[in-house]
């Protein structure tokens, strides 16, 4: 089988060929062409187009092309379903769906920057997805620090660092004020945005942020504040959960449900019932 898609692949257009080669057709051939030539070249080459608008193998709703391949070809491997979530999270910038998504995006973007030949990029990318698949299938419960004594020392070390942390720097105080001032009105507040306001490099800010904000990343801290705002809104029965999701900046109610349960340990509907009984 021949397959064709847009040039300069990064996430979906590397993940899908990997899936095809490993689970659908090991002899598949792939073509990468400019966006406006995909359809015409697909007819000329008798190749199946994928990951472009208006074709069968593409994004559908919130799901990406990789998801569609799994459904279309009835691939039920649990490890592939885990991998699909990671691919979707990285490909659609919804890194809250999978903790591995940020790393996959960073590696994919860097690889695409270094390698300009799309077929060589695919060859190198296949190795990444081989690794992710093996992790999804065999190694999810593995941790980098396996020794329990080593883990205990790390916990003690972290606590010691907290006690020795010292005075909060001026940028952290100013950032705390910015977040408090804007969290109700600027629900898309970003690390890049505040780094410009503070005149602090975003890489430094990202690295140091957790030391002064509850051991959370910038994104997790903002999500925590939005959930706290949602809990306040829940006390008013006139607000539906869909309205609360919108008012707290989530893309939809399902996104809100996932983040709420991750932070609070309960679905928002169950939490609200308990809250309103008090």
Structure in words:
This protein is mainly α and 278 residues long. The protein contains 14 helices and three strands. The protein has helices spanning 12-24, 38-45, 65-72, 78-91, 101-114, 118-139, 148-163, 170-182, 191-198, 202-212, 218-234, 241-247, 253-264, 268-277, and strands at 2-6, 29-33, 48-49. Strands 2-1-3 form a three-stranded parallel beta sheet, covered by helices on one side. It is globular and about 65 Å long. The N and C termini lie far apart (62 Å). The model has no long low-confidence stretch (mean pLDDT 87).
Quick structural gist:
This protein is mainly alpha-helical.
State the main characteristics.
Arc Repressor Mutant, subunit A, mainly alpha, 2 domains, three-stranded parallel beta sheet, 278 residues
How are strands sequenced across the largest beta sheet? 2-1-3
Enumerate the spans where pLDDT stays under 50 for 5 or more consecutive residues.
Answer: none
What is the alpha-carbon Rg in Å? Answer: 22 Å
Shape: globular
Order of helices and strands: EHEHEHHHHHHHHHHHH
Percent strand equals under 5%
Structural class call reads: mainly alpha
Query: Could you tell me the mean pLDDT?
Result: 87
Number of helices: 14
Helix fraction bin: 55-70%
Please count the beta strands (DSSP E, at least 2 residues each): 3
Query: Quick one: biggest sheet?
Result: 3 strands, parallel
The number of domains is: 2
How far is the N terminus from the C terminus? Answer: 62 Å
């Amino acid at each position: 089988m021949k397959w064709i898609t847009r040039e300069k692949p990064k996430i979906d257009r590397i993940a899908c060929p990997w899936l095809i080669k490993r689970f659908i057709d090991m002899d598949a051939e792939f073509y990468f062409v400019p966006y406006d030539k995909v359809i015409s070249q697909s007819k000329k080459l008798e190749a199946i187009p994928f990951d472009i608008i208006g074709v069968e193998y593409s994004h559908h709703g919130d799901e990406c092309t990789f998801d569609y391949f799994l459904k279309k070809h009835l691939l039920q491997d649990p490890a592939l379903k885990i991998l699909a979530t990671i691919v979707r999270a990285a490909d659609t910038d919804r890194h809250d769906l999978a903790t591995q998504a940020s790393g996959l995006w960073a590696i994919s973007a860097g690889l695409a920057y270094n390698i300009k030949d799309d077929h060589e990029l695919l060859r190198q990318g296949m190795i990444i997805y081989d690794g992710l698949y093996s992790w999804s299938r065999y190694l999810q419960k593995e941790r980098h620090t396996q020794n329990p004594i080593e883990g205990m020392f790390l916990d003690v070390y972290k606590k010691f660092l907290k006690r020795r942390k010292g005075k909060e720097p001026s940028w952290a105080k100013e950032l705390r004020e910015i977040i408090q001032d804007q969290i109700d009105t600027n629900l898309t507040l970003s690390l890049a945005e505040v780094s410009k306001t503070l005149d602090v490099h975003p890489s430094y800010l990202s690295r140091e942020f957790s030391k002064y904000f509850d051991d959370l990343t910038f994104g997790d801290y903002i999500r925590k504040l939005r959930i706290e705002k949602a809990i306040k809104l829940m006390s008013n029965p006139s607000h539906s959960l869909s309205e609360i999701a919108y008012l707290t900046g989530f893309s939809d109610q399902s996104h809100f449900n996932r983040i709420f349960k991750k932070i609070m340990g309960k679905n928002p509907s169950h939490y609200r019932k308990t809250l309103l009984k008090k």
